[in-house]
Design a protein that fits this description.
Oligomer: heterodimer
Radius of gyration of chain B: 20 Å
Number of helices of chain B: 10
Number of strands of chain B: 0
Strand content of chain A: 25-35%
Shape of chain B: globular
Radius of gyration of chain A: 22 Å
Strand content of chain B: under 5%
Largest sheet of chain B: none
Structural class of chain B: mainly alpha
Number of helices of chain A: 9
Largest interface: A-B, 27 and 22 residues
Largest sheet of chain A: 6 strands, mixed
Distance between the termini of chain A: 31 Å
Distance between the termini of chain B: 43 Å
Chain lengths: 335, 227
Amino acid sequence: MSALDVDIRLDRGAFRLEAKFRIPGDGIAVLFGPSGSGKSSLLSAIAGLMPCEGHVRLGRELIGDSAVDLHVPSHARGIGMVFQDARLFPHLTTRQNIAYAFKRAPAQKRRDIGEVARFFDITALLDRPVGNLSGGEKSRVALARALVAAPDFLLLDEPFAALDGIRRRAFIQVLLDTQRSFGLPMLVVTHSIDDAAALASHLVVLQAGRVVTTGAFDQATREPVFTALLDPRDSGAAVSGLLLHSRPDAGQKYLWLRADHIVLATEAPKAISARNILEGEVATVQMEEDGSRLVELKTAVGVILSRVTGEAAEELGLVAGRRAWAVVKVHALQH
Amino acid sequence: MLSAAEAEILSTSFSVASLALLWSLPFAIGVAFLLARQFRGKFLLDGVVHLPIILPPVLTGFLLLLLLGRNGPIGHWLEQVAGIHLVFTRQGAALATAVMIFPILVRASRIAFEAMDPRLFDAAAMLRAGPLDRFFSIALPLAGPGILAGAVTAFAAGMGEFGAVITFAANIPGQTQTLPLAIYAVLQQPGGEGEALRLAVMSFTLAMGGLIGAEFLQRWMMRRLQG
């Protein structure tokens, strides 16, 4: 599938965006960054909706290069986009919205609307006007519509911003299923670490208009520049979801284990309700501003962070090289 | 009900107003779409569009005579190349009317285009719709109710256009004599007040019918649009 190669610069008033990164053509990449870091602008530039300097390459094809004055217009880039606000056409029914994409998709890439509707569980909505769909329904219809346009790459700008709780998790599941079933590479914008962990195999981190780190999700999230971006309460580490006892529907890539939710023991815990007990070796112990200690534990499933009080750290003798057990409550995995 | 002469006046009015609408509307939609966006010299175009409202209608008719009359630069060319006469003909009456209703059409269409969420264009572009495609598949249907209401109002106004028509196309029964021109003609004759009143009632009824019709059409289309 098509990898995305981006090296662009754009100015909007006082704001300057400079981004250079490459996203592999498989799996889901997450564009992560605080609000105002330029995530939406970057997406618009890749989509050709906003003029920029530099170049964008999709697969082997150059779709924009200011050096040779090349600017393939948005509609001809082979890139799809799902917007935060769905942007369904109000004068069309759900079916007509999807048919809009169908009519314009290349003939050899046309997907059956009925099948796509079944896949996204929107068959019952097809003949309804889009005005009275719920937020979750709108998101699914927007995703179905984007998919039917048969893009080679899909951009998603905070597609679940309007959803919360169960609906949000359900939509993440739909995205994962979509990626798997259709083999469509995606770049998803989010500022939620849990959403990012659930979706991402690849990460691009944007801060103040610059890419501060990028790479495989579990690697990139361990970079100090990334850790510094997080709210201290969100400090933690990515652990492959497959290696933990978790809820059965988890087709997630990673789980974000918050340091605050991990209990450490220096002896193997017995008679305990937690199902996930991971043995490991303390790698580092870092003193935090508030006196608590951030303990890095190397386990078979990867590095785990745990926050303990200074008192506890001393009592347990948590120092580098010490054997320890991390106790993870399953409910800590369900954000 | 109607005398033969009255029926002829009505049919002339309808045909002049319909032709005028047919010619004016496509240009008006195009110009309105332009005016709904930002570009250099926008105020100039906006000013030119509104000229027929600001100028005395007789002057508009006179300017048309200068341009499109037999000795006018365009009129001469039209006659030589295509054999088209506009002055003192039904087509001429329609043209003068088209110019007069142009600002009404532009204004209504522009408001309709401006009320549209421009981000829907981006959404359409990301579904492989090119610029022209987006105009016809998104902009036009969404602005439809506003444009249609403007068209009905313009049609009603076109039926009543006087100054420019009489200056450019004269007052020829069966050719260019529309309702207001007929009212003017009968008022010139002694004892014509009775007939003038009958024509005035017809004119009033048509105008009101047009306005009410526009309102209903717009409500109906809005309902369709919003589900």
